[in-house]
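U., I forgot to send this yesterday:
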Amino acid sequence: VTGSSVNIRKGPSTEYDTMGVVKKGDYLKWYRWAWDGWFLIEYERATGWISAKYSEVYDDGNYTDVNDEDM
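Result:
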């Protein structure tokens, strides 16, 4: 997370409700890039969305592919 305080949302837009807030330097497991600059991520044992404006992907090479049916 690169923003100082970033909302995690229920969908890929600011129109969706907030699930929680993360802080700069927090690491989240991400699943995929979405349209309009959002990442699908894992947050508190659920999936949520974070804006790419305030986050960046760090690829440690340890990942699992998922598709829409897995969500």
